[in-house]
Amino acid sequence: MFSLLSNQRRRYAVQACQHLDTPIELGELAEYVAAEECGKSISEITSEERRRVYTSLQQVHIDKLEEAGVIECDRKTIEPTDRLEELEFYLEVVPGDEIPWAEYYLGLSGVAAVVTAGAWVGIYPDAVPAVALLALFVGVFAVSAGMHYVQTKRHKLDAGLGGDADA
């Protein structure tokens, strides 16, 4: 799987298979991938950008994805397989100015563990009841999970059609 996903263009193709309605025409896939690579909406990509990606997908990447069992391709029509779901773990999309959610939750859990241990050994005064700490942790995790949910939905909507629903 790591070899399969070592190429950015194939990762974009896999994302397209996760977000676009199926079956996917090769031209539609090329538009999606070109838009992602160029950081543009589908309507903004040039015919040259689309052609370059289309050729590469047709000559190299579709075959590799099909050999791995991630997609099935009949002529120029692509259908994702159940194996595609196995790749989701490896494809967490993290913009440059953010940290992965897994790391965020791990750090948040670490802070909660340190505060809990401090309360347990008596570092914090009795004026802070354990129930208040518990409520604080539940609230922080609930807000974080809500933010994660909204951000994930937003990323999926943005990725679905490159930000242009009419293209």
How is the topology of this model organized?
Elements: H1 8-19, E1 24-25, H2 26-38, H3 47-67, E2 71-74, E3 77-80, H4 101-120, H5 130-160
Antiparallel strand pairs: 1-3, 2-3
Helix pairs in contact: 1-2, 1-3, 2-3, 4-5
Question: What features would you describe in this structure?
Answer:
- With 167 residues, the protein is mainly alpha-helical.
- Helices cover 58% and strands 6% of the residues.
- The protein is built from five helices and three strands.
- It has helices spanning 8-19, 26-38, 47-67, 101-120, 130-160; strands spanning 24-25, 71-74, 77-80.
- Strands 1-3-2 form a three-stranded antiparallel β-sheet.
- β2 (71-74) and β3 form a beta hairpin.
- The radius of gyration is 22 Å and the shape is elongated.
- It starts with 7 loop residues before the first helix and ends in a 7-residue tail after the last helix.
- The relative contact order is 0.14.
- Residues 159-167 have low confidence and may be disordered.
Number of helices: 5
Instruction: Name the beta content range.
Output: 5-15%
Task: Sum up the overall morphology in one term.
Answer: elongated
Low-pLDDT parts are 159-167
Q: Kindly state the number of beta strands.
A: 3
What is the spatial order of strands in the main beta sheet?
A: 1-3-2
Helix content: 55-70%
Q: Which value, in Å, is the CA radius of gyration?
A: 22 Å
Give the rounded overall mean pLDDT.
80
Termini Cα gap: 31 Å
Q: Which class of secondary structure composition applies to the elements?
A: mainly alpha
H/E element sequence: HEHHEEHH
Main pleated sheet: 3 strands, antiparallel
